Amino acid sequence: MAREFLSVGGAFFAFMESDGLESMRNPAHMNRPWDRASVRTLRKRLLAWYRRHGRALPWRTDPSPYRVWIAEVMLQQTRVRTVLPYYERFLRRFPNVEALADSSESDVLEMWAGLGYYRRARSLRRAARKIMADSGGRFPCTLEEIARLPGVGRYTAGAIHSIAFDRPAPVVDGNVRRVISRARGIARAPEKFYWSEARAWLARRRPADFNQALMELGALVCTPSRPQCMTCPLRHLCRSASEIGKPAPKTHSKRVTELVELAILILQCDGSLVLERQTATSFIPGTWGLPVSLMRKSANPLTTAKRAAHSILDATPEFIRAGAVRHTITHRQILGHLVLAEIPPPRPPIKDKERYSWKNRTDGVRKLTSSFFLKAMGKSRGKGTKGQVTFGIPAMRAIRVM
Ligand code: SF4
Question: Which domains does the chain have, with CATH numbers?
Fold first, then answer.
C-alpha cells in the first residue's frame, strides 16, 4: 500500500493505492488456463514482434542494474515520454550508486522536480545508501535482496531482476494486466490471478525480452481505448480479438476520481511573495510552496483566501481571481483557484515566521520544486499596482519542469 501526502494549508491528504481484490466477472475463463502449446506460441510471437517493434529506450540499450532501477522507479505512475528527459539528466548528475548515495536529499529532489511522487526520489537515495553500506556499491542480484531496497515493490523487483539480470521473474503492471485481461477474455480478476498468469506465460530462456515485450505490447498495441487487434501478434490466441465484430473488452479502472478544490494564495508586495515551508509530513518536506487552503463544497475562493490570509499576515488583503490550475495525483483531481492580493508597501509582518516567509519574487519562484506550484505560477495572471501584467513565470522554467 503506497501513500503520498500533500500539505494543504495544514491539512494532509493520504493518497492511497490499494491492491484490493476485485470481483470476478467471468471465472469460467480463469479456470481454463491456456494449454502449453498456446503458451509456447504466445512466447514465440511476442518475442518476434518485440524484436521488430520494441523501442530502443536508453535503459534497454544499456540494461545495467543501476540504469534499469532508476528507469523502473521513474516509470512508476509516469509515461515513458515524460520520463526520458529526466532520466538522461538524472544519470548525468548521478551516474552510479556511489554518486547517488553521496548526494544530499535536496540535490536529488532538484533533479526530480516536476516528475511528481517525490517519495520515489527520497527512496532512491536511501536505497543507494543501503547498497553502499551493505555491499560497497555492488547492486544486489537476487530477487529477495532487490525487494528489500527502499521503494522497491513486487513489480519493480521483478522488473529489475528480469531485465537487468535476465532471470525469470514475472512482472505485472497496468499494461500487462490489460493484455492478460483481454487475451484471456476477462474483465476483472483478483491481483493474484494476473501474477500467476504472468508467471505461466514467462519465457524461461529470455525473460528480460519477454517481460519487456509484454509491457511494450500493452503500451503500443493493446492500448486502453484503441487496441490494434489487426496488427497484434496475439490476435489468433486472444479471446477478445476472436469475437469478430466486437471491440476488445474495456479494462476497469480501479479508482474513482475525486475532486479536491483549493484556494492558492499569491500574496505579493513590493516585488516579494509569501511562501510556505513544507513540513515533515508534507508533499515535499523542506521545500517551499505557495500557501493553500482547502475549500469546502461550493465555497467562494476569495472568501476562503481571505480567511487563510488572516492567519498568515498581520493585514487584511483584498484578493482578485487570477486563474485556475488542474493537477492529478493518483485518484485525486485537484482544482486550484488562484487568488491574488497585490498589497501596497510596506510589507505587512508575517504571523508564523517558522512556516511562512516573504521572498524576493524571482528567488521565490526558483524555490518552488513541486510541478503543482510551478504550474500554478505559470497559469496565474493579474495586474500589478501600475496596471501592467505581472504574473506568469518565465516560459523556460515552466517548460523545464512539465
Ligand atoms: S488481439 Fe487485441 S485485445 Fe487481444 S491482446 Fe491483441 S490488441 Fe489486445
Answer: 3-231 (1.10.340.30), 258-401 (3.90.79.10)
